[in-house]
Amino acid sequence: MNFNIDQQSLDELNLLGKFRQGSVYHLFNQVKTRGGEKLLDEMFRQPLIHETVINQRTAIFHFFQCLGLKFPFSVQQVGLMREYLDTGAGKGLIATFAGTLAMKLLSLTVRDERYKTNIQGLQATIEVLKSCHNFISTIGVTSDSAFAARIQEIKDLLYTPRLEKLRNTDIYKALSVQTLVHYDLLLKTHHHEDMENMLSFIHEVDVYIAVSSVAATRGFVYAKALTGACNMLSVKELRHPAIENAVGNSLTMNEASNMLFLTGANMAGKSTLMKSLGISLYLAHIGFPVAAASMDFSVREGLYTSINVADNIHLGYSHFYAEVVRVKQAAEAASQGKRLLLMFDELFKGTNVKDAYDGTLSVTEAFAEYRDCLFVVSTHIIEVGEALRGHDNILFRYLPTVMEGGRPRYTYRLEEGITEDRQGMMIIRNEGILEMIHS
């Protein structure tokens, strides 16, 4: 079973994108190695759906954060090791000997660099083995530590007699062709899987150090995952991870209060709050730290957002029809009986006020009946909130606007109730639009 999230939700929350400035992935992409970056990408694209597995991963991140380490390997040496292991892997004795002898002869006659490169790759590999041994020897690990089993696995590998002997070899003395062939066969054939395991370990360490360092620097915490049957989401001082000095908000939702009805003026922070919630839930499902003071959540089976719905010229959709299609997709997802988080920002803003009111009220009431799901619905049409007052499972919260000398100031702090703010015309007047038109 997979965690369900579609491309629109990924884009609206700006979760992925190696080169996408401001993306959540870009925030955590502090890894040093190519293999670490590949692993980071895999983690980001494969949210976990079992609370035990999630909590195990967060425990590892926390373990590394407590150590406060910097990446203990030479990036250049790890890269050379990767190239060395990929060159001529799996060959037998005769083929390895013939290939090595040919490379040496060519290096003497036509200045072919492959023989030298092979020796440098071997030297780098042995240096990486030594660095790995030093790293494992210097960190204190008890048997119940989160990463203990993995560390013991690599420790056992390093103390394999032939690898231990190799690790203590003087790698800078002159090597005969026979010796080089022996090492090539040892590392590229007999212990090829072990070397791949070693590199995987290094890439894991790379990711764990990078992500935990981001958490330490930015004051992020690790969420606690609960079984899906709890149907609960509780977060304190939630904020957007990419916004410096963001205002935090606290929120608790469960089966008895599974819908948040959110109101507030434009620029009051509704969309940012919704994105913060969606991003944190997604990060929590990959075991990554979240921008909050604390967070407990029951595992969801998917995340669905409708925040920046646009018209679709290619399909001939108007803005309103695109909104209708999006709501239909959400209804189909919710009706399948899965535990989801669904968020809708300004339902049906592409049509007239009367239809928007009727549509928002009807859809919100219908969605509220799916008690296994959690919903967030925001709107400017505050009259909808008044019509929903009789539903005991709907939380009413708003983001206020404070007027100071005729100018709005936004607190970005959630308050209980439904807003009565109507500053639209005041902002229009403040910007002098009417005077410009009449001039």
From TrEMBL:
Limits of the DNA mismatch repair proteins mutS family domain: 257-439
Pfam families found in the cross-reference section: MutS_V
Annotated signal peptide: none
Record key words, sorted: ATP-binding, DNA-binding, Nucleotide-binding
Annotated InterPro entries: DNA_mismatch_repair_MutS_C, DNA_mismatch_repair_MutS_sf, MutS, P-loop_NTPase
SUPFAM superfamilies in UniProt: DNA repair protein MutS, domain III, P-loop containing nucleoside triphosphate hydrolases
Domain of life: Bacteria
Database matches in PANTHER family: DNA MISMATCH REPAIR PROTEIN, DNA MISMATCH REPAIR PROTEIN MUTS FAMILY MEMBER
Protein name: DNA mismatch repair protein
Gene source species: Chitinophaga defluvii
Lineage: Bacteria, Pseudomonadati, Bacteroidota, Chitinophagia, Chitinophagales
